[in-house]
Sequence to fold (453 residues):
Amino acid sequence: MNLVILGGGESGVGAAILGKTKGFDVFLSDFGTIPERYRIQLDEEGIEWEQGGHSMDRILAADEVVKSPGIPPTAPVVKAILAKGIPVISEIEFAGRYTDARMVCITGSNGKTTTTLLTYHILRDAGLNVGLAGNVGRSLALQVAREHHDVYVIELSSFQLENMYDFHANIAVILNITPDHLDRYDYEMQNYVNAKFRILNNLTPRDAFIYWQDDPVIRRQLERVATEAARYPFAERMEVSDGYESCAWVDDDDMLNVNTPDRKIRMPRAELSLNGLHNLYNSMAAALSASILDIADDDIRRGLSNFEGVEHRLEPAGTVNGVRYINDSKATNVNSTWYALESMPADTVLILGGKDKGNDYSEILPLVKEKVKAVVCMGKDNGKLLDFFTGQVPEIHDTHSIEEAVRTCARIANPGDTVLLSPCCASFDLFNSYEDRGRQFKEQVSRLSSENI
Fold:
């Protein structure tokens, strides 16, 4: 079989190695530049590759194409492949064919990385042979090719779910759905919702579906989409909706309850390592997944209480001159920033900006008015932010680099204030990634500290 891989990143190279391991004729093509470490890896495996363009004759001779999630379906090369009737699948779909491991699959507009890493942490510390894959960890295909795990915990974006057809999750988690990546989905929210709900494909009565009970988008979609899986909703307080009782909630004694058919777990909410309402939901989803997998109660409690959190998600970046700096660079959409602001005190200086994805900032406006003393815009073009927030906050500033933004914050913040980088936007106007943005933010805060400004 001729297998073509589009994209020379982590998922593409992993898929190429798995394809070679299975005896396929593999060719990898990347329109951009393949990072050096992946070029070396491909050469060591004896896999043909190209970069800086596509050899369409080779690509259109494929029996099947594995497409990296970052390549949109509107890309000319993808349109040409589909026009010829060649199947296009994701790396996760491809890898799933060659493993019988149990799959815990987690999606959502916000919180999926934290929940994925927390779930993995609980399972690994309990002694399971568990792999971490998807948007975090290493390529699932590479792990399937080179290792054996009994369980995989997989973070799935809507982009990955687009090209998954026969893949079967044993535990499917949808944390929430709020507008995000609408530029990818023709600015139609329903298209984005449909992509997220592909995580339910192929669930059987032996499988589990975990979801936030109070998410209006999820509730509406469940009126249209049926699933045979057992349903495990979670909510801040015990409730019954659509005939289903909450399986995880906090009671009047501030105790977290996690109930599955054969067991009941309780622990003080105060013992959770992750703070904030959004992290309560993340902890509930992880605890339900672990309980369904028969992890011992004490192991679940321990994992929920000693998890150290996620870089770039409400990460303390230091205190300088009495001002606390928080790195929430992973907040690339409006709802994620809402959750961040919900956990902030008054007198917060908020850094916003980047590549706008069709954002509606009205969602965060009440919290901005309540908690934010100044907005610092940081991006190549801050026009939309300036138009929306001017007159809504006491101060607004227009900056065009991370250094300028941080120094502006340092100038206007007083002892006791909080500076929050929670941009609402993608990072690609000024940075390589949200990780790059967050690390540069922390570097600038560290400079402030060393200069004692």
Q: What stands out?
A: The domain at 2-89 is CATH 3.40.50.720 (Rossmann fold). The mean pLDDT is 93. The chain has three domains: 2-89, 98-306, 315-451.
